[in-house]
Amino acid sequence: MTTLERTVGAAVTRIEGREKVTGTALYAYEYPVPDALYGVAVQSTIARGRVRSVDSGAALALPGVVAVLDSGSVRRLRPTDDPELSVLQSAEVAYRGQIVAAVVADTYETASQAAAAVRVVYEEEPHDVGLRDGDPDIFVPDTVNAGYPGRTESGDVDTALAAAPVTIDATYTTPPEHTSAMEPHATIAVWEGETLTLYNGDQGPWMTASTLAALFGLPEGAVRIVADHVGGGFGSKAVPRPPTVLAALAARAVGRPVKLAATRQQMFTMVSYRTPTLQRVRLGAERDGKLTAISHNALQLSSRLTPYCEQTVAATRMMYAAPHRRTIHRLAQLDVPTPSWMRAPGEAPGMFALESAMDELAYALDMDPIELRVVNEPSVDPESGHPFSSRNLVACLREGAARFGWPGRDPRPGRRREGRWLVGTGVAAGNYPATTWPATATARAEPDGRFTVRIAAVDIGTGARTALTQVAADELGVALDRVTLDIGRSSYGSAPFAGGSMGTSSWGWAVSKVCRALAKRLDEVSGRIPPGGLEAHADTTDDVRARKNLSRHAFGAQFAQVRVDADTGQVRVDRLLGMFAAGRVINARTARSQLRGGMCMGLSMALYENLELDPNYGDFANHDLASYHVAAHADVRDVEAHWIEEEDDQLSPIGAKGVGELGIVGTAAAIANAVHHATGVRVRDLPITLERVRTDLTR
């Protein structure tokens, strides 16, 4: 094979960029499926109870309406561990916005009109949607998301806190937040006998296909997912959601393909959101800053259908050294939709509380916040005792501080003023697990000298298609334009979803392995490709399982500069700088885009995002992008993302840790800490609204 200059690490432009900007890239709802009908869901208008009857007469009378479906007329599904997927399988209503019926018609407009004409009568029951500490039904789950234990404890935390010369005891809250992906959840469902094809906005085609095959009682391989391009997901498209199941049910019922897209308003209840949290953090320290005790307790909610509990305190278990430690997750199951993954689940809200508390401790000690973190740097994972595969948090803090201009900062709050604006700076640390799952891949040498690599990866806007092509080209020793990477199809074999910052590391390992195998076969035949081509397969299951027991994490340091209007309390973020240690960066351009995007999402989390739960109706009152505010261009002024060169040979052959979630973790805390530095006002409840700042400013 010819050896070319390696492209891994280079700033390569997205391979599919032209398709996207010219509009030729096909997303789920856009595939030209002939003879398709349109489906629209009818959602519950009560938060708890039972459907007594569905009157479909007015809907069916409209020209073009083909069917009205309800729990008495659709196919029975198999039992599932995820009750959210049991769409129209029962008359019971567990939350407002649950799918209780659906209309199928020849146009979307007719289906929408007919859905509004369906009359549903309920037996309504009293509901409870309020997250309250002290609720007698709150419990500590044995395990939480990603398999973490619900509670851990070592040492004598209460005694250590009582004896500590300096302590912090503070409560922090984060609200419900919505993923708000640009592309709505959309599906085209096509049945051909007992084979189901779904053109789906999907973060994990192979895993979705397996889940739906079991749900519909179909053999493995009978469900095929097509997800060539996906317009964002942030976790909400990592597993099947009710609209996808509804599309498949509707297509089966009418015997024709059905297109179904959730509206922006419907997405706020049908496709998950981030749980609110109420977190109490207690820290005990010696006067030199060394932590003696850490206690982190997080209360959150889930639906009555599923006890989903986010790993909110998991990051606290490995961030800082302390001999006495206690972390607890608590859960309240209420009459609400089921929350689920949203970019950096657990770490994003949990690190806001921990890193805000660390800043408070630094002030109580009259100590630089960076030095406090350095003093408490652990030599091994404090929770597991395992060595870190690599841990460069201190390097991120030091290098980030130098780039940001931290040295010489006056630590006293409220000292810097520019006209009516109070100016402050803040810092926070971040981390995210470096997870790798097994995957399979196929590589083929074509007779014309080109190469095709197939893997059931998916590109949700992250640049995965380009990064994996770089890995393949380098392993094959050929130019990028000689490699075609086929992704987004469940039929390409087992592979994890795009989530948990594990996509590139997991898929990349399989691509690397299969291309090495193909290159070896080509060497064996002296590069002479037979007329039928040459093919190789790879599976990394055994490779992943054979890795050492190490603590694998990516780390970052976030710096923020804010201005606060001294009269109104308005907060503007002038500058964000992130310094990261994320293993080997595969594509400098797309990695920087991901990190900066995560930081912008963290800014949005800090200042704007807040789903308001209406206790009377049990619904999110601001369920649209007119009233659910996210950061816009004017809010994002100067965002820098940098990384250190980190070599970690304990990850995988490609050495990547993942950057998708790392950018958001720590950003909100850095901004909150900067607001305190600017004003002396400590805001412990997100978002940091002008009312919360102004109230204390005017005292």
Protein architecture, described:
The chain is of the alpha+beta class and 699 residues long. Helix content is 26%, strand content 24%. The chain contains 17 helices and 26 strands. The chain has a seven-stranded mixed beta sheet with strand order 3-5-1-12-9-10-11, sandwiched between helices. It has a five-stranded mixed beta sheet with strand order 7-15-14-13-8, with helices on both faces. It has a five-stranded mixed beta sheet with strand order 16-17-22-23-26, with helices on both faces. A hairpin with a 5-residue loop joins strand 13 and strand 14 (291-303). Helix 9 runs parallel beside helix 16, helix 12 runs parallel beside helix 13 (503-524) and helix 15 packs across helix 16 (667-679). The radius of gyration is 26 Å and the shape is globular. The chain starts with 16 loop residues before the first helix and ends with a helix. The mean pLDDT is 97.
